[in-house]
Amino acid sequence: MFKKVIVTAAMLAAFGQAFATVDVNSANEAGLRGIKGIGPAKAKAILDERAAHGPFKDAADLSKRVKGFGGHTVERLQAEGLAVGTSGAGAATVAAAGAQAPAAHAKAAPATKNDAAVVVKK
What we know:
GO biological process, one term: protein secretion by the type II secretion system
Strand content: under 5%
Keywords: Signal
Order of helices and strands: HEHHHHEH
Radius of gyration: 20 Å
CATH topology: DNA polymerase, domain 1
Structural class: mainly alpha
Number of domains: 1
Distance between the termini: 26 Å
Pfam families: HHH_3 (PF12836)
Number of strands: 2
Strand order of the largest sheet: 1-2
Protein name: Helix-hairpin-helix domain-containing protein
Signal peptide: 1-20
CATH class: Mainly Alpha
């Protein structure tokens, strides 16, 4: 039974990794390195270019501005989960998840008299 739980957890983790996207315009070095095919040197090149000349407009802009990124390389990286520009639906998901992260640390609003409580009995 324990082996089934471990295998299921591993499969879910792998499935989540397969569909995780990283936006090239907002990712840090660790996020970029999470994409298969981007190592420390390429991540640094992307970050340096983005800092020097602003965000990437699309995949063609990325391949033109970052040395060593041809069209086929960018296509392969997109298949691995790299989102370029605002057209990627996954990029919006990653951006929304990043925007919600700081809110998790905020203090909860105090309860008011009109707040409803839900009680679940077993």
